[in-house]
Amino acid sequence: MTLSERDQQHNWHPYTQHKLAKPAIAITKGEGALLWDENGKEYIDAIASWWVNPYGHSNRFIADAIHKQLTSLEHVLFGGFTHEPAVLLSEKLMEILPDNQKKIFYSDNGSTAVEVALKVALQYFYNRGEKRIKIIAFENAFHGDTFAAMAASGISFFTEAFRGSLIEVVRIPVPVKGKEQESFEALEKLAKTNEFAAFIFEPLVQGAAGMVMYETFALDKLMTICKENEVFTIADEVMTGFGKTGQNFACDYLESQPDMMCLSKALTGGTIPMAITTFTQELFEGFYSDDVNKALFHGHTFTANPTGCAAALASLELLQSKEMQHNIQRVHQKHKEFQVKISSHPRVKETRTLGVIFALEIKTETSESYYGDFRNKLYDFFINHGIVLRPVGNIVYILPPYIISDKQLEKVYSVVEEALEIV
Hints:
Elements: H1 3-10, E1 27-31, E2 34-37, E3 42-45, H2 48-51, H3 60-70, H4 84-96, E4 103-107, H5 110-127, E5 134-138, H6 147-152, H7 156-159, E6 168-172, H8 180-191, E7 196-201, E8 205-206, E9 212-213, H9 216-228, E10 232-236, E11 260-263, E12 275-279, H10 281-285, H11 306-319, H12 322-342, E13 348-354, E14 357-362, H13 373-384, E15 387-388, E16 395-398, H14 406-422
Parallel strand pairs: 3-15, 5-6, 5-7, 7-10, 10-11
Antiparallel strand pairs: 1-2, 2-3, 4-12, 8-9, 11-12, 13-14, 14-16
């Protein structure tokens, strides 16, 4: 029995309708931008395995840091205790985060990072005796699959079954070109009601919506509206963080600074699950009290896991290296060259790029569903040609490891071009 066949006996995969899905591809090895399956077939991982492996698979530098940490302290509870990797990581992050960020809360993944942020926003006002129990979010947002994060997400088929069990979230239009004023007016109308605790957003790029992009000035304006009305701003940088947009964080492009930031995915270079939510001093002080009931009663067994912190420290070192910064700019330049080449193709409706993110929208006669037949044909075409890409409906996006070679990138582009002619 193959590994793929054995997998089907017991494993339940994410975002999968198993009655309709093909057997999962069994991967046995990864190195750099490449993966190999149990039959020896090679794949280029053109989405960095859901955006988590910017420095490539089986990165020796991160692996060595993990091994070293495992031989001294693999884990210790973070309730009432601390350790050097967590202290050092918080210090290192403070050097590159927006300068209003002062406190760090550790959790396990992107969803929990968002969950923590939303709970802090709601409880902050509860601690002050104010009733602000609603959240503002963008249309078609995606912030995760735990309950508060799911409520903030706007992709309906992900959340439809739980509609009556979620916190109240009101959505505003994404300020894409031509809709900026509509977005501003919608937010201002909500913010002035004093009913909303926070506005959560994916800064500059909506990932799961198909890499939908909008301009810096628009987000700055939205954040200013929130500040004027005491609505906290939460930047969900789970996808965009750690170099994806060309800066360390998408928020680095802004004049405004968010009150909270959510980080995960590339935080540990794709090695160990870990997440972080960062806060201003003002938010922390909203819980600093002689009343124990005003504390943030939230925690995770593996909060600030030392091994994960060691992986994150190694990842930050790689991110800040001249070589990796050069790679980010190199990939961006290759994307721009491909954008110029492919934009005039008769089947291309639109292209967009920022940092190492590239997206291409294919013209179709009808609206394509998120996991519909057209998307599945594209996915199968890419897999058959040894490329790992996960289209969103009729949108193909490329978000590769920073260390991908020019030759590997050219192959990805070539297969995308071929798909436009065949699929």
